[in-house]
Input
Amino acid sequence: MRFAPLFLHLARWARRASAASVACASLLTVPFVSAQPARAPEAAPVIVSPSSVLSDSVTLDVLGSGLAQRSVTLFPQVEGEVTRVLFRTGQSVRAGQLLLQLDDRAQRLAVDLAAARLETANLLARRFESARGTGAVPEIEVEEAVAARRNAQIELAQARQALDELKVNAPFAGVVGIAAVELGDRVSPSSAITTLDDRRNLVVEFSLPEAYLARLKPGQPVQATSPAYPGAPIAGTVREVDSRIDATLRTVRVRATLPNADDQLRPGMSFQVRLVLAGEPRISVPELALQFDRDGPFVWAVREGKAEAVPARVLRRAAGRVLIDSALRAGEPVVVEGVQRLRPGRAVRVVGERNAAETR
Output
């Protein structure tokens, strides 16, 4: 009876060993399955727009002030009393025309006296010179007579100069302004008489940012409009570009000439000046295509079905597009939508294309 349990234990052990052998054999017959390779990411869907070439020309609209082609304020040369005012406001005068006369009675007498002295000196000098070499007149007296004649000529010239200084003449042809003196006024060299403007052509002065200095040159066309004649733009040309830059405002002064044959324009008028500055051809992309990272701006170009980040230096924005300095080629498509999924080298799938008008 003691051996029965042992026998039962041995039988159980044998059955378990047999089951384990069968399990091992079944495991050995299971075929080996290798690991599957990782699936490549799907092509990112994007919408693109073609890059293009645009001229980097700039249209500037600035305010300017009108100036006369030549403009002066007239003053008398000497002190005196006004005896004649020979102009009226707005009168066109010619160069050298007499505009104002001061009392010249004393100076006229001085001219007559100097002329008489010169006549006497001339007679004496001619008489002595005719006797030269005869011994009748010493040589020293002949030389003194000649010198006296020269002195008399100088005195007469001085008297005439003093007489001329009592006149105010127009230094050039132009239009006179309002008279600042009246008949009988006592004036001095600091008394303004009137203004004189040569406005056959009008000069418009304005300022432009120094960034455009390299594009400016005399002869460039401009178009100006005055509030006095809003519907009549006037074509002109750049006349002068200043040789200095304003260190405070960082601007350069420019002067343009406008024709004024009908004399409608006036010095001091304000003008809206439009100036078109030509530029070089540049690559243009939609604003939506421009992206930024820590290295600066760039665009996603689609090349051979893959996304490629192309650095782009922004030059100027205009009408919803950006002019850039970049290695991008004209006509290459750039991504305008779907940029969030892009990485360098990732395959892309173009699902739409927008033209230039649609990206503005």
